Amino acid sequence: HGPCYCDQVCARTLDCCHDYAQACPVSPCVVSQWSAWSGCAEPCKTTYRVRRRQILQEPRNGGEVCPALEERAGCVEYWTQQGAECKQSLIPALITTGGFGKARKKRAAADGNEKAGNCVEFQLVAITPGCLHSHHPYTHWMQYLREGHTVCVECQHPALDSRSLHCSGDGSGSKKNQLLHWQAVGNPQCKGTWKRIRQLDTCSCPSVHSFLFI
Length: 214
Hints:
Keywords: Disulfide bond, Glycoprotein, Signal. This is SBSPO protein. The chain is mainly β. Helix content is 9%, strand content 28%. It has a domain at 90-213. The strands form three sheets. It has a six-stranded mixed β-barrel with strand order 5-8-9-6-7-10. A two-stranded antiparallel ribbon has the order 1-3.
C-alpha cells in the first residue's frame, strides 16, 4: 500500500509493489531519424563526414537504452572551399598491366602525338583480397600484386597530361611516405594503397611488376 516508486531495482530485490507493472510501464529510448550527412570535415584530405540524431524520449523503468547518436563515414573532398581542385595525391590511380604498353606506344607513334613519358616507382602497402580472386584472362596480372613489393607504373600518352606532364593519380606533389590509393582496371574488388618512391624516365621493374596509368 502507498505510493509505488518506479525503481527497477525492485525486480532484483523482489520487493516491487503489487501494481508495479501498471504504475511503472517499461518505456524504451526513442530517437529521431538520422540527419543528412554533413560535408567532409576538411577538404583535400581523407577525413570523415557526420550524421546525427536526437533523443525524443529517454528510457524509463529499465527500457532499452539509447543507441549511438552520431555516425561517421570516410570521406574525401577533391575540391577546396574556394572551388580549386585539390592536389593529385588524393586522386586514386587507375592501373592496368604493362603488357598493353607496346600497343599503346605504336598507336601513339602512328598518330604522331607521342610525348615523352615517365615511370613512377611505388611500394605496395595494402592490397584487397579481391586481387587474388580474378579469374578472367584479362585480370590474371592482378595476382602478381603483393604487399611490400616495388612496382613500376608507366605514364604514357594518352594518359600523360600534355600540360603538367603527369598522369592522374601518380602522386605528384605528395608528401614522403604519404599513403596513396590505386584501383585495378577490370576488377573493382582489386584496389589498395602504396607509397611513391621516385620518378624515372624509364621503368626497370620486371614485366610482372610493371603497370600503366589509365
